[in-house]
Amino acid sequence: MSFLSRAFLRAPVPPEQRGISTSDPGLAAFLGALQPTLSGIHVTPELAMGLSAVSACVKLISGAISTLPMRTVQTKPDGTTQRIRSWLDDPGGPDGPTDVEWIELVVMDLLLRGNFFAEKVYNGAGQLLWLTPLPACSVNIEVESGRKLYRVQLNDGSSQVFGDSKILHIPNMPLDGIRGASPITSAREMLGGAIAGERSAHRLYKSGLLASAIVTPTAPAGLSPEATHDIQKNLNKMVAGEVNAGAIAVLNQGLAVHQWQISPADAQFIETRKFAVEEIARMFLVPPHMIGDASSSTSWGSGLEEQVRGFQKFNLTPWTSKIEARLSRLLPEGQKVEFDYRKLIGGDPKMETELLILQTGRPILTVNEARAMQNRPRLDGGDELPGGLPQQGAAA
Q1: Burial 126-137 (b: 16+ CB within 10 A, else e)
Q2: Are 163 and 147 a contacting pair, CB within 8 Å?
Q3: Relative to the CA of 12, which of 95, 218, 336, 390 has its CA 20 to 30 Å away?
Q4: Are 273 and 266 in contact (CB under 8 A)?
């Protein structure tokens, strides 16, 4: 277990009281993030996840990327690449999250907080073993003489400063070149309005302002409070509940029933809440229909395969490229990290098989290369291209 892991597992104690200058840029950014929006809502990642559209987008993107195999590949002298085993096959370590959970955590931190931090854990020989995720809210970035330092707040109230050799930082859109910004931060005003709309709708239902009908007396004298209570009780008894659903109420006390109709203002309010779903989907670059909004369509294609390819190209690839670039820096020269999209964007099995047969019949793929794509074992003599041209580097 790493030093920071043990520090975060300690029982928290009240931190010491220290004077902090308001000119500190980290503190100023922190306070700015807590400022209310124009709707009066303090937007936080936890509060934003309370919106079903935000939760659906985050789960969709992080879930899709976490299912992609993350490979370590090495470039050979002839320019081709081959997969090799590395510590990134289990990036969280034996006691940490699994590879799927680790990747999902990386993407969720980038989506909700704009930054992912992890402690680099080495063995006695100085070899990198794994990366232990750190809470993004516990890490503050400081710059001294052009060098980035990471101040990590521990559970006991103290803090320690580490350099790049000890901390991995994956930022999303670092507007200041240092700390990343999340979609939640960039669209906080829109999210504040969406949260305010949700709360207004809940208060509307709670206060009971959505009556199904209004009963008024036809006599000029009106009704006494006792008579009003009795009539309301009798009407509810006659038509309320699943047994009386659709029943006809008969009134013989000089009463008129007016069906409650939604006002233009209420209709506009409902339309605003629907528009918030589209805005959130646009914020995460997710087609609305992929988070359950059937009223919207996509311009990425009509077929499922075309839509998946569009989602991979315009949404998932930018996120995985950020992760690949940062993790590749931790590997020896000539090695890099790649996410394998073949399972996600794979087409019809019959068409894929026919394509492999066509490619192995021409000097494009060897039999063993085609079998490797299908996770099948190698065959003796399967490294020769059609026409008697042996594949470069094949076993004799």
Answers
A1: eeeebbbbbebe
A2: yes
A3: 95
A4: no
